[in-house]
Specification:
Length: 305
């Protein structure tokens, strides 16, 4: 039986669909790991197959023709459906949900809560990879990531979680021994868990206090959850995100030394490939996480009784 489908090369369709989304051959190349010239070549092949121009090429910009707009819409829908079907065939529509997360976020926020998601979605096995390593969602076997940054990454859908704000924290025993701490300057010279943490620079710069970690710049525990544990043990003052240690602050194991929170200019984001946004397992985790974040923000902003 003869295949009567008249289909263009998949590589050309991918290059065209990506360029159409970004209206940029350069950004399409960045997303696909191709050069701008390679993207342009694939699109030219497609235009020859179609028999019409798909883009209006200008000096510093491109725009879609009417033919290009229609083909872009259908191509995007088709690639989304193909991606979903392919993932399902590999057992990814159910099966395993793989999440790559900052170790501090994984240990202090996600770990105590992920069991509730697992119980609500018993058809999914959740695998959490707690790492600072940046993963490539187009190549690595990871469904979604929780990372820090601006929220603008080509090819990724990003959902804002909360800002990376910070404040110095210490145990009651440490405060009794080295305090009181009434001014930012009072922290200069006291033991610090991670004096080279960049958040200290943000914090002292905000208060216009000169700070130089000097030879201690390399000292640290490697991640926030370990630094929090060290601070709880009374080994020093640590700079942490209050949202990640909310329960520890509520229990009195740590005390926030100053009320003002300093913004680092970065935020936490949930990210996944735009092309996989309709996968049931990703939608389920996204909806659960966003609901948990919204509920927590409501509790934080609620007035105390």
């Amino acid at each position: 039986m003869t295949d009567r489908r008249d289909l263009p090369p998949l590589a050309a369709i991918r290059a065209f669909e990506t360029a159409a989304r970004h209206l940029s051959f350069t950004r399409a190349g960045e997303e696909l790991g191709m050069t701008q010239a390679a993207v342009s070549y694939q699109i030219k092949l497609l235009e020859e197959r179609v028999g019409a121009a798909l883009f209006v090429r200008q000096a510093r910009a491109v725009s879609l023709t009417s033919v290009g707009e229609e083909l872009a819409r259908v191509s995007s829908e088709a690639l989304d459906r193909l991606s979903t079907a392919y993932s399902a065939a590999r057992g990814h529509a159910g099966g395993v949900l793989s999440i790559s997360v900052f170790p501090s976020f994984a240990a202090m926020w996600l770990a105590p809560r992920i069991g509730a998601f697992q119980m609500a979605h018993s058809d999914l096995a959740v695998r959490v990879d707690a790492t600072r390593a940046m993963v490539d969602l187009t190549r690595d076997d990871i469904d979604c990531v929780i990372r820090g940054g601006s929220g603008h990454w080509p090819g990724l859908k990003a959902h804002f979680i909360w800002p990376m704000d910070c404040a110095p924290m210490a145990s009651p025993a440490f405060i009794e021994r080295f305090g009181p701490f009434r001014r930012p300057e009072d922290l200069i010279g006291v033991p610090m868990v991670a004096p080279g943490d960049p958040w200290w620079t943000f914090w002292f710069e905000h208060w216009k206090v000169a700070y130089d970690p000097g030879a201690k710049a390399l000292a640290g525990m490697g991640d926030g959850h370990l630094e929090a544990r060290s601070a709880m043990a009374g080994h020093g003052v640590s700079i942490l995100s209050p949202r990640l240690v909310r329960e520890t602050l509520a229990s009195g194991q740590l005390v926030q030394l100053f009320e003002t929170l300093i913004l680092t200019g970065r935020s936490y984001w949930l990210c996944y490939l735009e092309s996989r946004r309709n996968l049931p397992k990703i939608r389920a985790f996204r909806d659960w996480l966003m609901a948990e974040i919204a509920e927590e923000e409501t509790q934080i902003s609620a007035p105390s009784a």
